[in-house]
Write a structure and sequence with these properties.
Shape: elongated
Number of strands: 12
Strand order of the largest sheet: 1-4-5-2
Order of helices and strands: EEHEEEEHHEEEHEEEHHH
Oligomer: single chain
Number of helices: 7
Largest sheet: 4 strands, mixed
Length: 311
Amino acid sequence: MPTAVPPRPGLVRYTSWEVVPDGLLTKTQLAARGLKPGSEPEGQVLYHGNCYAPLYAESAAVPKRGCSPAQRAVLDRARQLQYECRRCGRRTTRPLPKGRRCGPCSYAVELWQQHDQAQALARELVADEDAVLLVVDAEPGVLPAERNVAVVGVRDSRVLYAAAAGEYGTAERGLVLDRLDELLDGRRIVEEGDHSCPPSRRSHRLVSLPGEVLPPGPHPLHPWALVGPKVSVAGIWSAWFGWTDHPSSTIPSVPRGPHGEQFPVPWSRSLDAAVDGQSMARLLHRIAEGAEPVWERAAWRADGHGVPQPA
């Protein structure tokens, strides 16, 4: 209810119900008698201390049009549908929110929408002649520590640049950064991942000391070295795959085991960054084509109701 309804100019004001003349009624009072206003208001009455309700002449009121049996049936059915999930048919004790889906179906639909958006993004990238994959380094502790870097075209898997990255602060690293600045300028860049991939495979590690924490956002000298959320192969694939670590979670991620260990991902991680970039490009093509497998327990599949229909 509004905190105040100001008086209408030009209408007589009545400050209490007791002084309202007979024959002047509010819309609510008319409705209770099966009537509706048939003329402009002839006065207004103060209520709740700071609100004014318009008053209408009962003598000018007209009967409210009733519903036909067919109209009543439609209205009754509409009210019933407010309690019935449009996806699974389950009935609830309370009216459903916009979209008319129960809790489990809302959860499944949200995950499916992320799955669908992942494919749309993959199709955009595959169609973009300038989109590239930036692949950095190799996993520490499993593979040799020397760093390498590659830039691979998403559309044709062509290797545009591949080199040893060298050590931080060396002339070799400086030449690599210069080449990346030139090659990546104006391009749409996809990386392997952010939090879901080995730390040494994040692009900003090329421009920072070991252990150095950079502020979120693009690096001031090398904008392609982005800290924080970015377009990534891991992000696209996890949204497509549909794995979540909890039955009610709507945040898909790269699958993990009970002790936090990652499951194998469908792209290569090797000593050769260019080969890994080509593997990631092929994955994006499979997602764009709908050929990449989806988790058999993805929410919209496991509940038995199939792919959700648009609201």
